[in-house]
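Entry 14: structure prediction run for Crp/Fnr family transcriptional regulator. Input pasted below.
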Amino acid sequence: MKKNCANCIYGNIHSQEIVLEDKAILFLEGQSLKHVYSINQGYIKMSKYTENGDEYIIGVLGPGDYIALLALLQNKETYIASATALSKVELRSMEKNEVLKAYQSNQKFKEMCLNCAITRSNLFHNQLSISANTDIKEKIILILSNLANKFGYINNKKMYIDLPFSKTVLANIINVRRETLSRYLSVLQNEKILSVNKNQYILHYVI
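Run finished. Output tokens:
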């Protein structure tokens, strides 16, 4: 995704640099969609809230990723999820009309945007599919494997995932309580399925 998205927004689109501190809110779900953002440094979590007010994280975006591009291409008038900084974040803000104008006038730009949006949509649906799984141990393994696409690497037939956020955030992504995550991580370690060293997770086999 990063390679596609990194080349997706280009040309003479006017942009403004923005810096967010940790935990700062970029926008909330349902607010009017006015800008598309590109991340230069740092990480943003995309989340939705249930009727009970519980947070459900649908993804974590980092350098090279774009925020709200998919919603814009779907002709949404509002942001479809909330965006909150997980660290200090540097990004560029682009007015949606300028992005749409470039999208409509440049075929290469359009193809790149579509590739970027399709990849993001597939990841979103994959996340929803994983979240629907009722087996917590399997859910943890699948979501860690999914996060490995952005934060991981393979070495000696093991998958290493270095997450730039806490176990509390990971628990929200998996949609379980922090205590539940810790309990199941202990079980998985006892079963020699994975190892945990602070925010590094090592899957002892590659899915």
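Notes: Residues 103 and 110 are 5 Å apart (CA to CA). Will compare against the previous run tomorrow.
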